[in-house]
Automatic annotation (TrEMBL):
Domain of life per record: Bacteria
GO CC terms in record: membrane
Catalytic reaction list: ATP + protein L-histidine = ADP + protein N-phospho-L-histidine
UniProt keyword annotations, A-Z: ATP-binding, Kinase, Membrane, Nucleotide-binding, Phosphoprotein, Transferase, Transmembrane, Transmembrane helix, Two-component regulatory system
EC number(s) recorded for this UniProt protein: 2.7.13.3
Compositionally biased tracts (Gly residues): 388-400
Organism: Actinacidiphila reveromycinica
Protein name: histidine kinase
Histidine kinase/HSP90-like ATPase domain segment(s): 286-382
Length: 418
């Protein structure tokens, strides 16, 4: 079943409403500066500088890589200073303040960032002093510094939140693993008790009933006595078989599958969306559990390396296989990696688990776009394989399915998950 859908995930090349609004405000300020500039030549120069100021923001926030984005910011700041001097009664201060706000996002914390902010702030204060003709204009430097400082604090808060989100994903995965391990241990204990007590007792009862029946037959007892003894022995034998089956079921325990992906996505601490399409096929419990674990690992990787990005989980059923794609959109603009590192064996374990289920795993950067994508392909039983031996169906129903589930909250460097 074909579907086309769009997720508004963070993308440096996608202009959001907020970004378009900011660009419109900048254009309006530049238009005011052009009108305020004296003379046609000056107006033309201010117009070109306004275009360069806007271009610098676009370059720094949408086009240039993170390690070169500072050049776009410097272009905006320099253009703003020039506009301020050419059109003193215009709004050339706006590009300078915008550049001062973005500058901390483009320079790593340290002496270089502090020096850059100080130079911009002092230069802004001197420019205001010159055009106002008053030494009190130097106080404007405090405003520029304050804006840059608030931006730096906000970036630090975002980085800390990203780290917390990544740690929450790790904690949730570990919690589920411990919970399942504890449940498996408890099932094992109950299975041992059933095996050691109930199964042995039933087996002993069966032997005793057979012995009594043999003695009764040798002594010439009537069928009225040997018949019930035979039925009682048969019930004891069936009880032994049922006890052994129950012990085996307890030791195997319930496994999670494709049906549980909705709960997994909903509990993801970052932003995640699930999309299921097609007619669910027949998937063995082992294969369903492998898919669940692979998606869980892919979500955890996204929380580590693309924190802040919306993660898309697509599940597509067809006649021969189920395809699951987990894709993030990479780090949002101005964000740094969470700093939480994996063990380095996640993808390898994922591939081994899916391989045992007869499937394949492909992982790598998204072609033509930001982010990372993990794709799973697992074969399903033919649709005609129905009946007692077909195995349980790992799907939400027998008919076509099309729906979505969203995660609980907003979940930021592209790179291979581990």
């Amino acid at each position: 079943m074909a579907n086309t859908w769009l997720v508004a995930g963070p993308d440096r090349r996608r202009f959001t409403g907020r970004a378009l609004g900011a660009a419109a405000v900048m254009v309006l300020c530049m238009a005011v500066s052009v009108v305020a500039a004296p003379g046609a030549a000056t107006k033309a120069a201010v117009g070109v500088l306004g275009f360069l100021a806007e271009l610098g923001m676009v370059l720094s926030r949408r086009i240039l890589p993170a390690d070169r984005a500072v050049w776009g910011v410097l272009l905006t700041i320099g253009s703003g200073f020039a506009i301020t001097l050419l059109a003193p009664i215009g709004l050339g201060e706006i590009p300078v303040l915008v550049g001062a706000a973005v500058l901390p996002l483009c320079v790593p914390p340290g002496p270089v960032r502090s020096a850059g902010v100080a130079v911009v702030a002092v230069g802004f204060g001197v420019a205001i002093m010159v055009i106002s003709g008053s030494a009190t204009g130097l106080l404007a430097a405090v405003g520029a510094w304050f804006i840059a400082d608030r931006t730096a604090e906000h970036a630090e808060l975002l980085a800390e939140r990203d780290r917390v989100v990544a740690l929450l994903a790790e904690v949730e995965a570990n919690r589920l693993a411990r919970q399942e391990a504890a449940a498996a241990e408890e099932r094992g204990r109950i299975a041992r008790e059933m095996h050691d007590v109930l199964a042995h007792s039933l087996a002993g009862l069966n032997l005793q009933l057979q012995a009594v029946r043999a003695v009764a037959a040798r002594e010439g007892a009537s069928p009225a006595l040997t018949g019930p003894l035979e039925r009682a022995a048969e019930l004891a034998r069936e009880g032994v078989q049922e006890a052994r089956a129950a012990v085996g079921a307890l030791r195997a325990g319930p496994s999670r599958g494709v049906d549980d992906l909705g709960t997994l996505v909903h509990g993801f601490p970052g932003g995640a969306r699930l999309r299921v399409t097609g007619r669910p096929g027949l998937l063995s419990p082992e294969a369903g559990h492998a898919v669940y674990r692979a998606v869980q690992e892919a979500l955890t990787n996204a929380a580590r390396y693309a924190t802040g990005s919306v993660v898309e989980v697509n599940v597509a059923w067809d006649a021969g296989e189920v395809r699951v794609a987990v894709r993030d959109h990479g780090l949002p603009a101005g964000r740094d990696p969470s700093g939480v590192q994996g063990s380095g064996s996640g993808l390898r374990g994922m591939a081994e688990r899916i391989g045992r289920a007869g499937g394949t795993v492909a992982a790598g950067p998204v072609p033509g776009g930001p982010g990372w994508r993990v794709t799973l392909r697992v074969p399903v039983a033919p649709a005609a394989a129905t009946g007692p031996g077909a195995g349980p169906a790992e799907g939400p129903g027998a008919g076509p399915v099309e729906g979505s589930v969203e995660g609980s909250a907003e979940g930021s460097a592209d790179g291979p998950p581990t």
